[in-house]
Amino acid sequence: MTNVADLPAAGFSCGLDATLRVIAGKWKPLIIYFLMQGPNRYGALKRAVRGVSDKVLIQQLKELEADGIVTRRDYREVPPRVDYTLTPLGHGLAAALAPLCEWGSANMAAVTRLLEERARWQAPGAAAGG
Length: 130
What we know:
mainly alpha, globular, three-stranded antiparallel sheet, about 55% helix, 6 helices
């Protein structure tokens, strides 16, 4: 059993716990991935992160900015022009996520098959007769 005195600062159980708290949410890792390629305007991020609502994307960007992962630059123009970029801390996090991207790319076909299989056994009526 882990002694409370042995736990890292701020109540994290380990480094992974700290990382997961920063990237918690369905969209943050994708936002970081697309910003890893360079600064992006809001509209470009919205198109890249398919399926995210405006409300959630704005919320996730604000949280990443508050956590020091992303910087928001407002050009104070009409029409409004805002772009987002990774901070040095954000670049470090993006580098840590890169192996996950590589794993996903290398195993995309297998993951697709697994998710299709999961969808079949989770479908209504699939449990009957199984």
